[in-house]
């Protein structure tokens, strides 16, 4: 059941919903929904149907949902964010060099004055 919980969590993240959002829609407590996602609680058929309906899929689709597609999406997003981070780090290094150059110019100006 842990795999099902991971699938539900992935679907929830894809929708941009919090655990609270889903718990309210299912009319259960947040801890109860958290236990479903973590696999602590086994899901009965009626709850499974309710969750499948919430994500606009059949029970079979929910049970066979391939989370590799979702992981690929997150991997692509992670790659994009990492590239942006590296670009920002390069900008910071360039700015640090500029600060050092300006400091050296200021120091030389004071030394010759």
Automatic annotation (TrEMBL):
Show the coiled coil region(s): none
Q: Which GO terms describe its molecular function?
A: DNA binding
Q: Which SMART domains match?
A: HTH_XRE
Query: By what name is this protein known?
Result: HTH cro/C1-type domain-containing protein
Instruction: Write the record's keywords in alphabetical order, separated by commas.
Output: DNA-binding
- CDD domains (UniProt xref): HTH_XRE
Identify the residues that the record assigns to the HTH cro/C1-type domain, covering every copy. 8-62
Which Pfam families does the UniProt entry name for this protein? HTH_31 (PF13560)
InterPro entries, A to Z: Cro/C1-type_HTH, Lambda_DNA-bd_dom_sf
